[in-house]
Predict the 3D structure of the following.
Amino acid sequence: MSKLWLIIKREYFTRVTKKTFILATLGTPLAIALFLAVEIYVLSYESESNRIAVVDDSGLVKGTTKALGDNKTVKFFLKNETFEELQKTYKEQNYDGILHLPAKLTTSKNKDLDIVYFSEDKLGIVSKDFIEKKIGTRLEEYRIEQSGYDRKVLDGFETQIALNQKTGNKEEDDKSFSAEIASFIGLLVGYIMFFVVLIYGSMVMRSVMEEKTNRIVEVIISSVKPFQLMLGKIIGVGMVGLTQLGIWAILIPAIVMLTSMVIGGNVDPDSMQDMGALGGGDIDPEETLHKITKIIEELSNLNWWAIIPICLAFFLGGYFLYSSIFAALGSAVGDDAAEAQSLTIPITGILMLGFLLMIAAVRNPNSGLAFWSSMIPFFSPILIPARLAFNPPWWEILLSFVLLVGAALFFVWLSARIYRVGILMYGKKATMKEIAKWMFYKD
Amino acid sequence: MNVLELDQVVKQYENHTAVDNVSFAVPEGSIYGLLGPNGAGKTSLIRIITTITKADSGVVYLNGEKLNSNTPSQIGYMPEERGLYKKMKVGEQLMYLAQLKGLSKANAKKEINSWLEKFEITSWWDKKVDELSKGMQQKIQFISTIVHRPKLLILDEPFSGLDPINTNLIKDEIYQLNQEGTSIIFSTHRMEQVEEICEQIVLINKGKKVLDGKVKDVKFENKENLFRIIFEGTLPAHIGDHFKLESLSENELLIKVPQGEDSNQLLAELIKNNVHVVSFSEVLPTLNEIFIKQVGESDE
């Protein structure tokens, strides 16, 4: 046991003290923060503010431009000159352009109307969108006023429908449930699982190959059993993975929040809203708010105290299963990186298949496909975490986990049998057939 | 008392028998040569002794005990193909390897420091292995092999890849360890080194033991009654009729006495013919010659 612990310690500390590890672990959240900051900055960037002279022939703005309302980059100034006069003098008066509201704006009943913005410089997308929206809103109000309807009455006509799904089980139904959000969480968790297993599994493989190529392995296994060395390596690297994920789980949300607070604080909420409109077409701010509160509600309704340990358990099971296979393959190839690559293709393929099954399962969480593929240990580490947001039955999770643990133990055992022979084999390339034979070698 | 005893050890792989019924004993405190051509089964034997693999049948005793989980801490093994973790610092690496051999942390540190001092390389503690030259790495490798003061030291081709200076340095250390009571198995196919270093040998070929015993005895048993004579005067022409002339130069003669005859007969014949014998000595075969002859025979 103490020797196993020594190996775990070495595998762990040589990795976490490496410059590349520290760089990747701290660099990733920083890179995300930087990306976020740049994105916010770029989107909210608008050359200086636009001073816009407004010529109102329509009576829409009624004596004051305040009816339109400024934002940080667009400032309106109502002028009494005519549009033609202003075209000659607007620059001297230090305006960036002239917005002409023609008389037909208030007389026309059309839905689509063109108005003119006169300037030598073109407006940025955000400003253009802002102006269009302001005038559109103002015109809508104007038309309501003209029609004699009460605004409040009209507002009362607006509806918002939420589809509430009932299963007949009261406990279940009490949880407000949104399939959309659950799908998103499921996909995200499955996605992370996929990459984590792949990345740390191949890290184990590289480490085995390195020891074999270095020839230190024979010295080590004259002190410890090959199984101890392999297990120590798998556990050590797994702990490195958990460390990295743990740091990211804390650092990334923290740094994202911090960035949006520092940089986002300078961004005008109006223009943020405009950005939203740019990205997602016509999103009603109220609707967005409603969605956000709904998401937060859903997130807090999920049973994180169950989800996190289950994810962790399935991660560990999947990690042991796959990394032991990676270790066995690494022992068989030695220093041939190209061969290592070709041997890992089938495993990556299996993982990919699991990934595709996960997508299908998230779409149809209660289907037979989702159930049966969750029972296959090669897929369950991706599938079960992805399905957790849909509250699969407990017995299903438990059964899947038992099968996973069984398979993981079996493959660790099997891989150890290949590993102990493989690490001492040099020279000719091992074929799959030979590797299979190694399982039956005596000690 | 024997530090190591092998009793009818057999190890089979899929298509061949790597170790075929081999028995021998290594006396405590000796330097013992494990000889054989490449592929004879030396490494397979060593892997059984170091508990890396297990014998299919037969028994191995270390200090009179069957091999067990304590065995690794009593053996120091330097494989032919050796290596270290390249990115690890010298000190950490030695600490790790020593602790794997069962030394406590404090003890490991003490031992490592005393060895680094001995080789005057204490400043290497924080150096990474791949910053060291090959010769320097060999020193670290050697320290890692003996840091836990093994009772039995197994060196597989220890001098391969070493320059003469480092060869001598390691050789001196081997002698010194031996004097302090460490038994040493020295596996090689380089005979001149064996003759120089080992007191006893076992020769294996194709997994089988060909011969074993003290170097002196092995040579004696394999002698061919060959004599070197330095003389003055003229040799009688008929001398080659009875004795087999191996070579003849101006005043030096190499000649074989037929099996079972006394060398005095040769001497008497020379004196009778008025040849002045300046020197008369028996030529014992070198281990290399015995090796080639025996391996040739066992191959047939």
